[in-house]
Amino acid sequence: METMFQPSSVQAETEPTILIVGGVAGGASAAARARRVNERARIILFERDAHVSFANCGLPYVIGGEITERDKLLIATPELFRERFRIEARIRHEVIAIDRVAKRVTVKDHATDRLYDESYDKLILSPGATPIVPAVAGVTAPGVFTLRNIEDMDRIMTGLAQARQAVVVGAGYIGLEMAEQLSHRGLEVTLVELQSQIMPFFDPEIAEPLHREIERNGVRLELGRGLASIETAGGGVSGVVLSDGKRLAADLVLLSVGVRPNVSLAADAGLRIGASGGIATDDFMRTSDPDIYAVGDAAEYVFGPTGEHLRVPLAGIANRTGRLAGQHAATGSARPAPAAWGTAVVRAFGYAAGIVGLSLRAARAAGLPARAAHVVSYHHASYYPGAAPLAVKLVYEDGTGRVLGAQCVGAAGVDKRLDVIATLMHLRGCIDDLAGLDLAYAPPFGSAKDPLHMAAFAAQNDLDGLSRLIQPAEDLSAYQVVDVREPAELLELPLSQAPHAKNIRLDELRDRLHELDPSRPTVVSCRSGQRAYFALRILAQNGFGELYNLSGAAAMRDFALYRKSGAATETQVELPRPEHLVDRAR
Ligand SMILES: Cc1cc2nc3c(=O)[nH]c(=O)nc-3n(C[C@H](O)[C@H](O)[C@H](O)COP(=O)(O)OP(=O)(O)OC[C@H]3O[C@@H](n4cnc5c(N)ncnc54)[C@H](O)[C@@H]3O)c2cc1C
Predict the structure, then answer these.
(1) For residue 177, what is the domain's CATH number?
(2) How far is the CA of 256 from the centre of ligand 1 (A)?
(3) Per the structure, how many domains does the chain have?
(4) Cα(146) to centroid of ligand 1, in Å?
(5) Handedness of CA 159, 160, 163, 167 (dihedral sign)
(6) Residue with the nearest Cα to atom 8 of ligand 1?
(7) Rounded CA separation 344/22 (Å)
(8) How far apart are CA 294 and CA 158, in angstroms?
(9) CB 195 within 8 A of CB 546
(10) Which residues pair with residue 239 across a beta bridge?
């Protein structure tokens, strides 16, 4: 079968002409792999811009000065493609039409404006995506930028020279990275986001520690407001007006409100566009025309947690599927593309945060019976110097325990936890698998019970009914609430929106049971969840029927409700110290 993977066939004797549209993440990977498996293929890479194979993920760090040599982003040049790979990389050549019947593309050479045709046996599309530019007044003014490629980066670097005040519109990954980097450059930065939190695909309590870290570093947040217009003066930007009428002075505006997949070439050629707006693909990244492949930001992937076909505009999957498509086009054989899990991580000053799979909000919106457990801990053994705070949120399916996703935020060790969960999800693991993982441990690296183990234990206890969890933002007004912390801790971090909570220290609980009503649904809380678990087990064995542990306890509740409560009235804590000294065993 031509599509089955045959190791012996990963080297072809045929001489196909393989044309590739787009010469960066997916396209360059496809070209290089095609050559490695087929020395005889004729391979031409078309790139409408001036650079092929550059590291677009590194662009913000050149702008901020962390990467000091711009040219380090230029991973391969047309010369390297020609000399090492015998691949023709034609820069400033744009493919403008596909004739699927004649198996031919029409190309525009932007240097000469010449149009010409090129025939193919196999065609690979990796045209990427284009930053969305909101249709507001002033958006074309000098000083207003988007960031996608080297040219954009160079323009921003030029604009930076005169700039003092920047407004970054849109607080996704690129917006966050740029807010940080512009701040590193000494600009006064405001980050504007239409949703009520940055990184809108995170659950709120995971975004909140980032909010605080960003504000601590002097970047102003304007949440829940969109961009209404851009004001100009003297031929450049002078400010922005937000949807609530607020005006912010600015001499540099970066628009990072998302990207639109470049699918018009494919759509005009009659290729099927999927429900998520990307080019529909099969297991081998073939489009509805088996001689045409699509990868990267413009393509659809099977999203593992739900099985839906979705766009996943991230670099890793573009590179890996580019490689796959390159091989399949060159040999007719490849291993099928695995599902995408949307694993992503971002840094904001001293914190990192990331997600794999579904947030709780997204899982429930997808109709899944999802539950979640929070753990507030350290990135390595608490007693070893340098232990940094880390919070994990594990999302899993009720009944089956299938892991649906995880989010992580903290000052260190975030990427490691995300990657473990990504691996587990790739292998279709459940919380029992996570609880049993034999992870590397010595005090400088982790804990004997890693935060991921602790999250899995909490999830197991939840599903086993040993310690049922409720979510941090739950309305507690109808519950009897017991807070088992030391009184001094309550002053430092009150239990948000629970003025009726009764404070009984864990160590006194057995002696003061008579102060509580065992017939009432009861929620137990502490600082981060551990003492509440111990308390819950005491109550459960003393006649209390309906008991819940507030997942992530006062810390996560504070994060979850802080912005909702109109802010500023409540204590703002950093990720708190976990209750490691009480007992580590769950
Ligand atoms: C600033 C920035 C930071 C990022 N950081 C991260 C990160 O940290 N982690 C992560 O996972 N992802 C990150 N990404 C996303 C990642 O870069 C993309 O997901 C990835 O580049 C997509 O690969 P692609 O091949 O689909 O598109 P691209 O890499 O954008 O390549 C598409 C190329 O096709 C060309 N093209 C389009 N149409 C035509 C045509 N008709 N003819 C010829 N050429 C054409 C375009 O000019 C473009 O150069 C970042 C992106 C940006 C912009």
Answers:
(1) 3.50.50.60
(2) 14
(3) 4
(4) 13
(5) positive
(6) 57
(7) 23
(8) 35
(9) no
(10) 231, 249
Which own/partner pairs from 276-282 qualify as long-range (CB within 8 Å, at least 24 positions apart)?
Answer: 276/300, 276/308, 276/309, 276/310, 276/311, 277/311, 278/309, 278/310, 278/311, 279/125, 280/309, 281/309, 281/337
Q: How many residues does the chain have?
A: 586
Q: Is 430 a known active-site residue?
A: no
Question: Has residue 531 been placed in a domain?
Answer: yes
Tell me, rounded to whole angstroms, the distance of Cα 462 from its chain centroid: 27
Ligand 1 contacts CB of residue 224 (under 6 A): no
β-strand 122-125 against 17-21: which pairing, if any?
parallel
Mean pLDDT for back-to-back runs of 10 residues, the chain (586 residues): 52 86 97 97 97 95 96 93 97 98 98 98 98 97 97 96 96 98 97 96 96 97 97 95 97 97 98 98 98 98 97 97 98 96 97 98 97 95 93 97 98 97 98 98 95 98 97 97 97 95 98 98 96 97 97 96 64 52 34
| Among 120, 123, 126, residue to substitute to test ligand 1 (most atoms within 8 Å of Cβ) | 126
Up-side HSE of residue 113: CA atoms within 13 Å toward CB?
A: 0
Residues 474 and 457 in one domain: no
Q: Which domain holds residue 32?
A: 12-129+260-331
Per DSSP (E only), the strands in 34-92 are 42-47, 88-91
